[in-house]
């Protein structure tokens, strides 16, 4: 897998996952919505750690910048 996520993209995904977690643990969301958002948060965290988003691939999207030497 070739990296296709930049630092800003990863930080935003982690922040969204944290907000979803806070909403769940404060009982602001529950039921089916909580399950769906929980799965989305888990996917965001996973894709952030591996720096690869499979949905970017078919569209040719990349937010990853190669460092200049």
Radius of gyration: 14 Å
Shape: elongated
**Which consecutive residue ranges, at least 5 long each, have pLDDT under 50?**
none
- How widely separated are the two ends? 23 Å
Our count of helices gives 3
Helical proportion, percent range: 55-70%
What's the order of the H and E elements?
Answer: HHH
| Quaternary state of the chains | single chain
Main beta sheet: strand number and arrangement?
none
Strand content range: under 5%
Structural class: mainly alpha
Average pLDDT figure: 93
| Number of E strands | 0
Describe the structure using short key phrases.
69 residues; mainly alpha; 3 helices; 62% helix
Write the SSE topology.
Layout: H1 7-25, H2 31-50, H3 56-59
Helix pairs in contact: 1-2
């Amino acid at each position: 897998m070739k990296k296709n996520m930049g630092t800003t993209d990863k930080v935003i995904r982690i922040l969204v996952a944290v907000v979803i977690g806070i909403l769940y643990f404060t009982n602001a969301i529950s039921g089916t919505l909580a399950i769906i958002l929980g799965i989305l948060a888990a996917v965001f965290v996973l894709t952030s750690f591996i720096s690869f988003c499979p949905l970017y691939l078919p569209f040719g999207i990349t937010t990853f910048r190669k460092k200049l030497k």
